[in-house]
């Protein structure tokens, strides 16, 4: 338990954040949207370290969606440079905090260069025992679920599993998040109140928290506020816990 101002926080094992509001944050400052993305990516490091300080086990961050390819080419090109930036700038801090990095998302649309970067980061951090930072990059929940269904259908075809034996656990174990604890808390900054194709299956019994702060301005204090709110929630999972 993490104690702050005499509030004993109930620390969720797995927190997810939709990194939204970079463009609006930059616009408010008269800067191009890409400046917001730059600051947004830097904020991942700050909040990953904060999450690790709070004792959170896994942090999933939504950094690029399967729908974000629809944006202007310049913006997409800029966003595609971020994994390289990430590798260069976060290496030392993540080592210091023993942070393990994994990536969730399609591996079919990214450049060879980016795929190599993602693979290298994953490999270099795989034995770390601290916070698991799950970066969702070219991630879409519907694609993730469709891929899980295809894998299960293929297991049915090959006789590995019978249709009548399929349970929700079979879906769980085909998702990118299969090795992570159940999702406890989902945070969306920036004032939007929607999920935008993020963790639709995993969110089943997660607590949802929305705040107005744009992602580049989301601080350790903002995270703490979300944790205080989470601590007040009464999770019943369909039962009758008081
Ligand atoms: C989130 O910020 C980053 C990505 C989606 C890549 P946005 O770029 O969506 O910023 P807003 O929502 O337009 O302010
Ligand atoms: C969701 O934000 C995706 C990421 C933050 C990576 P968007 O800005 O793309 O979502 P919408 O379009 O407002 O729903
Ligand atoms: Mg947005």
CATH class: Alpha Beta
Bound molecules: 3-methylbut-3-enyl trihydrogen diphosphate, magnesium ion
SS content category: alpha/beta
Structure summary, number of beta strands = 8
Helix content: 40-55%
CATH topology: Undecaprenyl pyrophosphate synthetase
Q: Determine Rg (CA atoms, Å).
A: 18 Å
Strand content: 15-25%
CATH H-level superfamily:
Decaprenyl diphosphate synthase-like
Shape: globular
- The span between the termini is 20 Å
| Largest beta-sheet details | 6 strands, parallel
Question: In the residues, how many domains can be counted?
Answer: 1
Going across the biggest sheet, name each strand in turn: 5-6-4-3-7-8
Number of helices: 8
- Give the mean pLDDT: 96
Helix and strand pattern? EEEHHEHHEHEHHEEH
Q: Architecture, CATH level 2? A: 3-Layer(aba) Sandwich
Residue stretches low in confidence (pLDDT < 50, at least 5 long) are none
What can you tell me about this protein's structure?
There is one protein chain. With 242 residues, the protein is α/β, with parallel strands linked by helices. The protein has a single domain (10-140, 182-230), classed as Decaprenyl diphosphate synthase-like (Undecaprenyl pyrophosphate synthetase, 3-Layer(aba) Sandwich), CATH 3.40.1180. 41% of the residues lie in helices and 17% in strands. It is built from 8 helices and 8 strands; from the N terminus they run βββααβααβαβααββα. The chain has helices at residues 22-28, 33-54, 73-79, 82-96, 112-125, 141-157, 168-172, 220-232, and strands at 2-4, 7-9, 14-18, 58-65, 100-104, 132-139, 185-188, 207-210. The strands form 2 sheets. It has a 6-stranded parallel β-sheet, sandwiched between helices. The protein has a two-stranded antiparallel ribbon with strand order 1-2. The chain is globular, with a radius of gyration of 18 Å. It starts with a strand and ends in a 10-residue tail after the last helix. The model has no long low-confidence stretch (mean pLDDT 96). The structure holds 3-methylbut-3-enyl trihydrogen diphosphate (2 copies) and magnesium ion. Residues 19-24, 40, 64, 68, 79, 190 line the site of one 3-methylbut-3-enyl trihydrogen diphosphate.
């Amino acid at each position: 338990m993490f104690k702050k101002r005499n509030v004993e926080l109930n620390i969720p094992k797995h927190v997810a954040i939709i990194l939204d509001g970079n463009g609006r944050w930059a616009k408010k400052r008269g800067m191009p949207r890409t400046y917001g993305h730059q600051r947004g990516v830097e904020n991942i490091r700050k909040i990953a370290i904060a999450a690790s300080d709070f004792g959170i086990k896994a942090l999933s961050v939504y950094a690029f969606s399967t729908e974000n390819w629809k944006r202007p080419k310049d913006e997409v090109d800029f966003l595609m440079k971020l994994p390289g930036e990430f590798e260069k700038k976060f290496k030392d801090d993540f080592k210091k905090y023993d942070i393990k990095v994994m990536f969730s998302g399609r591996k079919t649309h990214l450049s060879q260069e980016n795929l190599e970067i993602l693979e290298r980061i994953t490999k270099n951090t795989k034995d770390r025992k601290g916070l698991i930072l799950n970066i969702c990059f070219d991630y879409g929940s519907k694609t993730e679920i469709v891929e899980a269904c295809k894998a299960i259908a293929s297991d049915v075809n090959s006789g590995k599993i019978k249709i009548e034996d399929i349970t929700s656990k079979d879906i769980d174990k085909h998702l990118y998040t299969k090795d992570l604890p159940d999702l406890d808390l989902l945070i969306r900054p920036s004032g939007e109140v929607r999920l935008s194709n993020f963790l639709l299956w995993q969110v089943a019994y997660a607590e949802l928290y929305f705040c107005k702060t744009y992602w580049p301005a989301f601080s350790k204090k903002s995270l703490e506020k979300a944790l205080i709110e989470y601590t007040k929630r009464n999770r019943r999972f369909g039962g009758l816990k008081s």
